[in-house]
Design a protein that fits this description.
Subcellular location: Cytoplasm
InterPro entries: KH_dom, KH_dom_type_1, KH_dom_type_1_sf, KH_Vigilin_N
Mean pLDDT: 76
Structural class: alpha+beta
Largest sheet: 3 strands, antiparallel
Shape: extended
GO molecular function, one term: mRNA binding
Keywords: Coiled coil, Cytoplasm, Repeat, RNA-binding
Number of helices: 50
Helix content: 40-55%
Strand content: 15-25%
Protein name: Vigilin
Number of strands: 49
Length: about 1350
């Protein structure tokens, strides 16, 4: 009943525009507004809704008699206040309480709506006395009070501030209990009764109708029941055919429901009278064809004939089909049933199960040919059965059967299979890595090999394919299996530290080994396992060969990892390295690595460095070195050129800021020894180094070195830092080598022999002669080695040692005891150890403790220093004073403030330290008094060279000679000669001085360097400065090579200048000169000249190579093949360029004069020919290709292409073809072009046609769905819009009103503007 009016209204809206009053309803009259202030009248009340505030305020009043807490004394405190605070915290609302005159409680609640409602409910429940009432409504209405998920009940409780209890479904009671205030109970009771009253208007009715008549009531495709539901507004539920229920359920308004029931009853009674039935037998297998997809065939018969067809359930064995309908229509229906049943047939074809996948073809290609011709035929292959089932229209099934039988016959004639037994443990080896072995066999013999998965533990392997190929594959697989049975596995023990070296960077070295022994599988353990076992598996002979090869490799690695340490005086390290690392490179025969190498030396390496101990890890020793190699570039140097040829080692030097003097050499033992000898010889050449050998029994070596090497280190430090080298432990050698300045070596020798004598007395029990010392058992009994530790502040140590070790030597000479101070790396910096005879140690201890005690007694003293010398002590942030404090036990020296003419200097500290400091200050003053200043004339243009990088050379001279050097200010506009004269031995041939400015014989002011210090020191410093003046030599270099020597942006010449510490002057290009001038120190010029000539040789060789590389070859190739030769993003042409090391140039398309079919190849002649052959090979393959156009529905193009072309690229890669889709706006949007080899093109076309068929079905379904989703009525909306139109407007022709003036501010006033009063058609202005 509702459908009719709705349809009418819609049609009216579409045909006629609304009236003016409908579109713009008038505002209510003023009177009406006053009378009905509570409920605004008119259509506006439905249109306009007030905007609700997010925060609201409500006031609740609790009468005195309903208050829970009536005690006046407790207002604002006690239980009532606690409850209000809890409510505020729980709900987030704000509560304010006040007492009215009648002692009632007024509560103002502010907050968001939900919070206010919850707070109100809590207030009523906890601050107001509660009443209760019951209301009875029908049990079936209770669920409507509760609502979905109880939401309606919760809203009702919040609105009324009550608690509503509804009996459980299993409770027969219909009483609902409401608890709350009287007002809330009344409101809740009213709402519950209102819900019940609404439900009373609705009804539910059940009608029993025989199951057989349900199809007549529903109608074809449920249309009849749908019409009844739409007309009556009643919901009608007919059980589906699969549910064995007879009742039909009606739900709706009582009146409309009665109409619907009456109509259904009428149809039922009518059909019951008029219809009859007939039963026919139809094969069970044909029932599904009668039913049709989703029951469509039954609905189709019902629509055409009005006859219902009843099919027995699928689980029933009955084949009887019952037709129910009017007698005259049963015949037609029976004909249709038989037609449907016989329209499809089921047939089977005998075919061995192993042939099934060949019949299906690669990716279903063979089967697709049949299914494309006969799409309604369903072909089913059952695994393990030797038959194929066909189902579909009879004619199509017969044709498909013939084709499959022919295919089976052909396959049986030309295919064969065989099954072989191979132990399953060999299966994965037969398959090979990533299937390499089995794929090779498949491709080589054109067969299919089926190997069972590991989980089955089956030994049976099946080979299918061409009979000859099957036999060959069988033979090869059996041979492989036989070979594997003869395999052996061997475990090779290789230290884990060598594993990464053997594997190589990115596995390069292990790949070489595997290529050398392809039949051997080499497995390295996981690094996390810390295992040394490397497993080899393969044929016995090959495994043995591989084992020997790897053992030899490991032996080489072990041999090359031998290392020795060489102590070299720190000041000579830079000479050992050479400029740019030249010397080191020559020693090692390889570049110095640029990484920081942390060397953790083994005890063996420790012995190499001269320290032998047992049972202690080197990392615990102070000389476990963190050695940092220098990152340098290399060049030729005449120094040590012979060493480079003889040695191939790695040399690591300590960092510049490290205190270590040890250089570590790694490589083969013989090479390491040779490199050490060369390095030591360099040191000998550089300084007056003496070397003495002392014979000390090997058993004493460890005790002489001492715990953590402290004992031997103390001797080395005491004797000016000499190097003492002990032989390797176990070598049997007694020779200890002492190396250093002659005087220091002799001193160290005496102390070492003296210490050895003491050790002998302690450790030896028989007479022993050691270097002239006769030791008897009696002497041994008289003396024993004794050790004592004492403590002193670290700042006292230098004072206790004294200048040059004088004080501590005096104590040792007096007592005979050895005193060892802590090294910089020792944790305990206060510990001083005394070693020797007990009496000597005690005496030394007494002397040292007295000295330390004196140092602890702080005194203050002063001395007079002329103010003119004050600046010397305080300049450079008081460096001189800091040095005095460090040397003399931390004594504090205070000079008067600058500006005051006081000469009093205060000293504070230990008495002895203060006296020593005063003495030192006096010495400095005497030096200053004796100081002279001399001049050294060196042309200004050489000053920068003399200073060296960052002034390093000058700083070295000032340190060495204890002088001060001052350079003059630079002359702003010096006059230079046009052509600088050649300098020899530091003499200036032309200094650019103007003759009229000064006497030609006298030097210029800007050339004079002043040197201050003691006279003899100043003279020595002057000689050192003059030795730094550069000289110039000339080298002849062909002019055409100059630009290559200079390099890009001067990088080449800068590198040489930095490397050889010289200045290289290349003549200007316009001079066309072959002469290059080299200016620098005499020591560097020979190296620089040799380096330059070597660079010339390299450049000449490069020129010759460049000439050979410039050979050009042209290839004629049709321009249409150029894109294919270039490849996607240049991949193909780049591969050819890299592979043949050539440059390939394609013609410029924009150049009309250039032949478009000529490709130019540049490179070595042999390489260009190889590249040409590669290009012509590609062209030959391209010429064999064909292009075919395929009609492909444009609606499926996007799906075939895929996201970002991923799908189409996959197809092109798989079939090795090129597929081009039409551009937008092409004449034929369905034409797709496939290019490639003929067989590939054919396969690709079949594949994309299959995809088209699959995707097109989805497109058709989608379009069909869109038809239902967009009714035809909406299609008219595509017409141009007429805009918004209304009828009966005040300004129309039949109206006296004019149309509103759009430009008038009166007709359309702006917001806030004052407008003159005017009577408007839509009501009085308020």
């Amino acid at each position: 009943m509702l459908a009719g009016p709705v349809a009418t209204l819609n049609s009216e809206e579409e045909s006629d525009p609304p009236t003016y009053k409908d579109a713009f309803p008038p505002l209510p009259e003023k009177a009406a507004c006053l009378e009905n202030a509570q409920e605004p009248a008119g259509a506006w009340s439905n249109k306009i809704r007030p905007i609700k505030a997010s925060v609201i305020t409500q006031v609740f009043h609790v009468p005195l008699e309903e208050r829970k807490y009536k005690d006046m004394n407790q207002f604002g405190e006690g239980e009532q206040a606690k409850i209000c605070l809890e409510i505020m915290q729980r709900t987030g609302a704000h509560l304010e309480l006040s007492l009215a005159k009648d002692q009632g409680l007024s509560i103002m609640v502010s907050g968001k709506l939900d919070a206010v409602m919850k707070a109100r409910k809590d207030i009523v429940a906890r601050l107001q006395t509660q009443a209760s009432a019951t209301v009875a409504i029908p049990k079936e209405h209770h669920r409507f009070v509760i609502g979905k998920n109880g939401e309606k009940l919760q809203d009702l409780e919040l609105k009324t501030a009550t608690k509503i209890q509804i009996p459980r479904p299993d409770d027969a009671s219909n009483q609902i209990r409401i608890t709350g205030t009287k007002e809330g109970i009344e409101k809740a009771r009213h709402e519950v009764l209102l819900i019940s009253a609404e439900q009373d208007k609705r009804a539910v009715e059940r009608l029993e109708v025989e199951k057989a008549f349900h199809p007549f009531i529903a109608g074809p495709y449920n249309r009849l029941v749908g019409e009844i539901m739409q007309e009556t507004g009643t919901r009608i539920n007919i059980p589906p055919p699969s549910v064995n229920r007879t009742e039909i359920v009606f739900t709706g308004e009582k009146e409309q429901l009665a109409q619907a029931v009456a109509r259904i009853k009428k149809i039922y009674e009518e059909k019951k009278k008029k219809t009859t039935t007939i039963a026919v037998e139809v094969k069970k297998s044909q029932h599904k064809y009668v039913i049709g997809p989703k029951g469509n065939s039954l609905q189709e018969i019902l629509e055409r004939t009005g006859v219902s067809v009843e099919i027995p359930p699928s689980d029933s064995i009955s084949e009887t089909v019952i037709l129910r309908g009017e007698p005259e229509k049963l015949g037609q229906a029976l004909t249709e049933v038989y037609a449907k049943a016989n329209s499809f047939t089921v047939s089977s074809v005998s075919a061995p199960s192993w042939l099934h996948r060949f019949i299906i073809g690669k990716k279903g290609q063979n089967l697709a040919k049949i299914t494309q011709q006969m799409p309604k035929v369903h072909i089913e292959f059952t695994e393990g059965e030797d038959r194929i089932t066909l189902e579909g229209p009879t004619e199509d099934v017969n044709v498909a059967q013939e084709q499959i039988e022919a295919m089976v016959k052909d396959l049986i004639n030309r295919m064969d299979y065989v099954e072989i037994n191979i132990d399953h443990k060999f299966h994965r080896h037969l398959i090979g890595k990533s299937g390499a072995n089995i794929n090779r066999i498949k491709d080589q013999y054109k067969v299919s090999v089926r190997i069972p998965p590991d989980s089955e533990k089956s030994n049976l392997i099946r080979i299918e394919g061409d009979p000859q190929g099957v036999q060959q594959a069988k033979r090869e697989l059996l041979e492989l299996a036989s070979r594997m049975e003869n395999e052996r596995t061997k475990d090779l023990i290789i230290e884990q530290r060598f594993h990464r070296t053997i594997i190589g960077q990115k596995g390069e070295r292990i790949r070489e080994i595997r290529d050398k022994f392809p039949e051997v599988i080499i497995n390295f353990p996981d690094p996390a396992q810390k295992s040394d076992i490397v497993q080899l598996r393969g044929p016995k002979n090959e495994v043995e060969k591989c084992t020997k090869y790897m053992q030899k490799m490991v032996a080489d690695l072990v041999e090359n990892s031998y290392s020795i340490s060489v102590p070299i005086f720190k000041q000579f390290h830079k000479n050992i390295i050479g400029k740019g690392g030249a010397n080191i490179k020559k020693v090692t025969g390889q570049p110095v690595p640029g990484i920081l190498a942390l060397l953790t030396l083994t005890p063996v390496a420790l012995h190499h460095s001269g320290f032998g101990f047992e049972g202690e890890s080197l990392t615990s020793q102070p000389w476990a070195l963190s050695v940092f190699s220098r990152d340098v570039s290399f060049s030729q140097s005449p120094l040590s050129s012979q060493i480079r040829e003889e040695s191939n080692t790695k040399i690591d030097l300590p960092a510049e800021n490290s205190n270590s003097e040890t250089i570590v050499i790694t490589g083969k033992r013989a090479n390491c020894e040779a490199a050490r000898s060369r390095i030591l010889s360099i040191q000998k050449d550089l300084a007056n180094i003496a070397e003495v050998e002392v014979s000390i029994p090997a058993k004493l070596h460890n005790s002489l070195i001492g715990t953590k090497g402290r004992l031997i280190r103390s001797i080395m430090e005491e004797c000016g830092g000499v190097h003492i080298h002990f032989p390797v432990e176990g070598s049997g050698s007694d020779t200890v080598v002492i190396r250093g300045p002659s005087s220091d070596v002799e001193k160290a020798k005496k102390q070492l022999l003296h210490l050895a004598e003491e050790k002998v007395r302690k450790e030896l029990y028989t007479p022993l002669c050691l270097s002239g010392f006769a030791i008897t058992e009696r002497a041994l009994q008289q003396t024993k080695s004794f050790t004592v530790d004492i403590r002193a502040k670290p700042e006292y140590h230098k004072f206790l040692i004294g200048k040059g070790g004088g004080k501590i030597r005096k104590v040792r000479d007096n007592t005979g005891a050895r005193i060892i101070f802590p090294a910089a790396e020792d944790k305990d910096q206060e510990l001083i150890t005394i070693i020797g005879k007990e009496d000597a140690v005690r005496e030394a201890q007494k002397e040292l403790e007295a000295l330390i005690q004196n140092l602890d007694n702080v005194v203050e003293d002063y001395m007079l220093v002329d103010p003119k010398h004050h600046r010397h002590f305080v300049i450079r942030r008081g460096q001189v004073l800091r040095e005095i404090a460090e040397e003399y036990g931390g004594v504090m020296v205070s000079f008067p403030r600058s500006g005051t003419q006081s000469d009093k200097v205060t000293l504070k500290g230990a008495k002895d330290c203060v006296e020593a400091a005063k003495k030192r200050i006096q010495e400095i003053i005497e030096d200053l008094e004796a100081q002279v200043t001399i001049e050294c004339a060196i042309p200004q243009k050489f000053h920068r060279s003399v200073m060296g990088p960052k002034g390093s050379r000058i700083q070295q001279i000032t340190r060495d000679y204890n002088v001060q050097i001052k350079f003059p200010d630079r002359e702003e506009n010096p006059v230079h000669n046009v052509e600088p004269a050649i300098q020899e031995n530091g003499d200036d041939a032309g200094d650019g001085r103007d003759a009229k400015d000064a006497d030609p014989g006298s030097p210029r002011r800007c050339d004079i360097i002043t040197i201050s210090g003691r006279k003899e020191k100043c003279e020595a410093a002057k000689e050192a400065l003059e030795a730094l003046v550069p000289i110039t030599i000339e080298v002849e270099v062909p002019f055409d090579l100059h630009r290559y020597i200079i390099g890009q942006r001067g990088s080449g010449i800068r590198k040489m200048m930095d490397e050889f510490e010289v200045n290289i002057h290349v003549p200007a290009p316009e001079l066309q000169s072959d002469i290059i001038a080299i200016t620098g120190l005499a020591a560097n010029l020979d190296r620089a000249k040799a380096g330059l000539l070597e660079r010339v040789k390299e450049l000449q060789a490069e020129q010759e190579d460049r000439a050979l590389r410039s050979f050009k070859l042209s290839v004629t190739v049709d321009p249409k093949y150029h894109p294919k030769i270039i490849g996607r993003k240049g991949a193909v042409i780049t591969q050819i360029r890299l592979e043949h090391d050539v440059n390939i140039q394609f013609p410029d398309k924009d150049d009309g004069n250039q032949p478009q079919d000529q490709i130019t190849i540049t490179g070595y002649e042999k390489n260009t020919e190889a590249a040409r052959d590669a290009i012509l090979k590609i062209v030959g393959e391209l010429e064999q290709m064909v292009s075919e156009d395929v009609p492909l529905d444009h609606r499926v193009h996007a799906r075939i292409i895929g996201a970002r072309g991923k799908a189409i690229r996959k197809i092109m890669d798989e079939f090795k073809v090129d597929i081009r889709f039409p551009q937008s706006g092409a004449p034929d949007p369905n034409c797709v072009t496939v290019t490639g080899l003929p067989e590939n093109v054919e396969e690709a076309i079949d594949h994309i046609l299959n995809l088209e068929e699959e995707y097109l079905a989805d497109v058709v379904d989608s379009e069909a769905l869109q038809v239902y989703m967009k009714p035809p009525a909406h299609e008219e909306s595509k017409a141009p819009s007429k805009g918004f139109v209304v009828r009966d407007a005040p300004w129309t022709a039949n109206s006296s009103e004019k149309a509103p003036d759009m430009s008038s501010s009166e007709e359309f006033p702006s917001f806030g503007a004052q407008v003159a009063p005017k009577t408007l058609p839509w009501g009085p202005k308020r």
